[in-house]
């Protein structure tokens, strides 16, 4: 399986705009050789130890339900002059949504482990034999073996054996490292769709995700309002310090945090912005219809899928995308250490009991 050069380019675009494709064909072949990539449908890691987690090591992911039709202004006309217009954040457009439910939390490692145990599901990162991690988070042993990087964003490196269970490669383990309550990462859009389907759910549309993020507030930057730190408190997990060298973790977390760490809005949703990026169902476009839309689902086809919310790697200077209207994209087979998801579900209004007495 060839490393997806588009993924590399898109990851780099989180922070900068590289002028050239980052890896040569020879680089890719060298990585494939190092990783001993196997064919599609197989995994390199079939002989992993049994997972030994317990149900109380991660929170139950209850859903928040919107039982009525709702309307809101999606995107922004940028009253604060901060929108990244090239991402298609603007203009604001009127959207109506039918009743739906959305996960309270990002999907955790514990939930994903349940899925893997029940189905023997193999993620795309396992099939590829590697996934992208920020080099700062690797052990010296793993880091010393890495010879590739992304042009213009050298902190991204393809790490052999990095996948959901081993977020920083072979010597990390979400089970042993007590991270079952952290968001699952190294999951592609295709993997996320498979998980949600197994749960009887689906990915949220971008419009559903953004409505949920806004918490009923109109055109605010964050789920709680416009002030980044109300009363001096952090409400999200992003990057503090000078990126990428310095990570002062004033919010308490250098990398991911537990999925139930930051309650962010009046709807009761956690980590909509920050912690990990979240896949949505939609194909990416920057061209939005100007007429009011009912249940918009984005274009019928495209190259990349929309992701929302920013991640623990975002800082204001490099990736000011931890805002509800902000958006970015990756190809559907992409995976990295800062990209996860949550699921949604259409809410079917229960039929009322027949209370007629004249029968
Ligand atoms: Ca942080
Ligand atoms: Ca998030």
Description of the molecule:
This protein is α+β, with helices and mostly antiparallel strands. The protein contains seven helices and twelve strands. The chain has helices at 5-13, 25-35, 109-119, 124-128, 140-144, 189-198, 206-214, and strands spanning 63-66, 70-74, 93-97, 100-103, 130-134, 156-160, 277-283, 293-294, 305-308, 328-330, 339-340, 344-346. Strands 10-9-7-11 form a four-stranded mixed sheet. The longest helix has 11 residues, at 25-35. The chain starts with a helix and ends in a 13-residue tail after the last strand. One of its GO terms (molecular function) is formylglycine-generating oxidase activity. Residues 288-307 are annotated as: Disordered. Residues 1-18 form the signal peptide.
SSE arrangement:
Elements: H1 5-13, H2 25-35, E1 63-66, E2 70-74, E3 93-97, E4 100-103, H3 109-119, H4 124-128, E5 130-134, H5 140-144, E6 156-160, H6 189-198, H7 206-214, E7 277-283, E8 293-294, E9 305-308, E10 328-330, E11 339-340, E12 344-346
Parallel strand pairs: 3-8, 7-11
Antiparallel strand pairs: 1-4, 2-3, 4-12, 5-6, 7-9, 9-10
One calcium ion binds at residues 237-239, 249, 251, 253, 312.
Protein name: Sulfatase-modifying factor enzyme-like domain-containing protein
Signal peptide: 1-18
Region (Disordered): 288-307
């Amino acid at each position: 399986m060839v490393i997806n050069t588009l993924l590399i380019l898109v990851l780099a675009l989180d922070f900068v705009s590289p002028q050239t494709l980052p890896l040569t064909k020879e680089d890719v072949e060298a990585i494939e050789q190092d990783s001993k990539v196997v064919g599609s449908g197989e995994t390199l890691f079939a002989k992993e130890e049994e997972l030994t987690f317990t149900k109380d090591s991660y929170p139950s992911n209850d859903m928040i339900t919107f039982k009525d039709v709702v309307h809101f202004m999606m995107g922004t006309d940028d009253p604060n002059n901060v929108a990244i217009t090239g991402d298609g954040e603007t203009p604001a457009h009127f959207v109506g949504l039918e009743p739906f439910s959305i996960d309270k939390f990002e999907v955790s490692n514990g939930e994903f482990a349940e899925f893997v145990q029940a189905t023997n599901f193999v993620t795309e990162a396992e099939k590829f034999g590697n996934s992208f991690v920020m080099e700062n988070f690797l052990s010296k042993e793993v880091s010393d073996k890495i010879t590739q990087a992304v042009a213009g964003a050298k902190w991204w490196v393809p790490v052999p054996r990095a996948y959901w269970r081993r977020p920083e490669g072979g010597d990390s383990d979400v089970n042993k490292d007590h991270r079952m309550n952290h968001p699952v990462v190294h999951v592609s859009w295709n993997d996320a769709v498979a998980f949600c389907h197994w749960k009887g759910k689906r990915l949220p549309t971008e419009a559903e995700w953004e409505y949920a993020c806004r918490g009923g507030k109109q055109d605010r930057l964050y789920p709680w309002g416009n002030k980044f730190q109300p009363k001096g408190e952090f409400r999200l997990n992003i990057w503090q310090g000078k990126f990428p060298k310095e990570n002062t973790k004033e919010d308490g977390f250098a990398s991911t945090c537990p999925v139930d760490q930051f309650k962010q809005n009046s709807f009761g949703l956690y980590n909509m912005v920050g912690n990990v990026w979240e896949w949505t169902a939609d194909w990416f476009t920057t061209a939005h219809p100007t007429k009011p839309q009912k249940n918009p689902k984005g274009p019928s086809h495209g190259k990349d899928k929309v992701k929302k919310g920013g991640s623990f790697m975002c800082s204001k200077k490099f990736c000011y995308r931890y805002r509800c209207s902000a958006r970015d994209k990756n190809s559907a087979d992409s995976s990295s250490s800062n990209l996860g998801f949550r699921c949604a579900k259409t809410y079917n209004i229960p039929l009322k009991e027949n209370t007629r007495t004249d029968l």
